[in-house]
């Protein structure tokens, strides 16, 4: 009978593990080595095609289209959630993939959505046709509004399309399925003040308005929209003392910067939305 103490047993265990390691086939050694040294790469482009069942996707970059395989443990970081899923991907999104490549096969372990946004003034809005014309940086952009488009108001409060009005300054998060600009989120986060106009300074581009015991001064931003008779294009000189106004603004370090001025009561009634035809 052989009696082994703990030291002897430990030695045999180490010897056995060493023999198992040495008996690995060359191909297994090669696979382990490749897995260890394959560098991670990244690629950013528009998602143009995907197959959730086959776990593949295709991206179009500035010049090339590339096809990728989604790894079993691939992670997804989306614009509105840090722990997404393959079901959150759709053509038209702009994403960055982190992947490894072997023999021309690209395997992705992380997909990160890159939000696409544009800012501007609502120039035209058709809730029935679900289109929005946004004017910003001297350019008009026509966007289709997605069926499940989110509207976000100040302090992250959820809104609806009925909260949007001609002249609102908004930030739109969009995607481009079939090369068509499509709005998926519209943020209108300015504060609002309703009061009677008490003073205008045309040179300084400021106005003062009073509501009960609260008088505020507003400095007009360069692209401040002045809405007259439901249309854009109004001028500061069109406003008159004692006009009752609704002023949309952002407070920046104590300065109220106005981005929209319209007569009080000129907005759409509850449950409806303003519409203005696009003019050439």
Globally, the shape reads: elongated
Q: Measure the end-to-end span.
A: 102 Å
Gross CATH architecture of the largest domain? Beta Barrel
The CATH H-level homologous superfamily of the largest domain: Copper binding periplasmic protein CusF
Count of spatially separate domains: 3
Order of SSEs: HHEEEEEEEEEEEEEEEE
Q: On the 0-100 scale, what is the average pLDDT?
A: 86
CATH topology of the largest domain: OB fold (Dihydrolipoamide Acetyltransferase, E2P)
Task: Report on this structure.
This protein has 280 residues and is mainly β. It has 3 domains: 39-113, Copper binding periplasmic protein CusF (OB fold (Dihydrolipoamide Acetyltransferase, E2P), Beta Barrel); 116-188, OB fold (Dihydrolipoamide Acetyltransferase, E2P) (Beta Barrel); 191-263, Copper binding periplasmic protein CusF (OB fold (Dihydrolipoamide Acetyltransferase, E2P), Beta Barrel), CATH 2.40.50. 10% of the residues lie in helices and 51% in strands. It contains 2 helices and 16 strands. The chain has helices at 6-22, 26-37; strands spanning 41-51, 56-60, 65-77, 94-102, 105-113, 116-126, 131-136, 139-153, 158-159, 169-175, 182-188, 191-201, 206-211, 214-226, 244-252, 255-263. The strands form 3 sheets. Strands 1-2-3-5-4 form a 5-stranded mixed beta barrel. The chain has a 5-stranded mixed barrel with strand order 6-7-8-11-10. Strand 13 and strand 14 form a beta hairpin. The longest helix has 17 residues, at 6-22. It is elongated. The termini are far apart. Mean pLDDT is 86; it is low at 27-32 and 268-280.
